Amino acid sequence: GADFAARAGLSRIEIVEELGSTNDELVLLAETQPDEWGDLAVLVAERQTRGHGRLHRPWESPVGASLAVSILLRPHNPDGRPLPTQSYSWISPLAALALREALAQVVGLESALKWPNDVVVGGLKISGILAHLAPGAHGEPPAVVLGAGINVSLREDELPVPTATSASLAAGRPVDRTGLLAAYLEDFARRYRAFCAADGNAETPFAGGRSLLSQVQDATITLGRRVRVELPGGRRLVGRATGLDSHGALQVVEDDGGRHTVGAGDVVHLRP
Ligand code: BT5
């Protein structure tokens, strides 16, 4: 608990038996107890009764076989200046990169990002990531609540949808759930601090390596593929995903040559 939090650079970690949604709860705590819930405070639930994804879609997390973890972020650079809120769109990809690293280290699994918020193994969803805004403390800019649902050891018959998999199914052996959580949180905290130190700029060298933008581009299987995108308003685009812009939005070139930048939506790869 506290030892791990200190070592990983987290301000707090709470593990609760049951709640509705770790994201909803942390948004509430950020508002009602701003001094107790600071930057890099973590809330984990053993059981979520109302876990959800985007557009109120349910997120299933069978007890003991999955992780529901949310991190509160109050992004500031090392001089104490708040990060520009336009940079917040990079926070979900940061989490996806951290989870990818944790899956590689702890489970030996190769995974990829599926734009905008999934981590997939062999094309199947192993994790969904969802960020919400929360009120900032004491007149500060908004905080971010970053939630991840991770399928750790769901059996075949526990998978909620045919497009899902779990770490133990993909690896073919048992997976240390606590070890995976610890690796994810440690890696995320490290990346997040580097991101804050870079003022949220995704195009500068990052954490001693290539820019965050190019790391995310390389890890994203959506790029270069033919896609169908369902936009929030109900409109639909069909074309080729060509890249990410400086905010992490997906660039799509339609079959008739029209160029679009998609900030949010559902992407389906199309088979050639
Ligand atoms: C997501 O939404 O993938 C983001 C899920 C975020 C869940 C975490 S858990 C901790 C925190 N607290 C919350 O309440 N939420 C966050 P979306 O892209 O909208 O995908 C939702 C869809 O994924 C559902 O409609 C199902 O089709 C599918 N789904 C549900 N449970 C799944 C699972 N365990 N594994 C794979 N797919 C699942």
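^ biotinyl-5-AMP complex. Helices lie at 2-8, 22-32, 91-107, 167-171, 177-197, 212-219. The chain has a mean pLDDT of 94.
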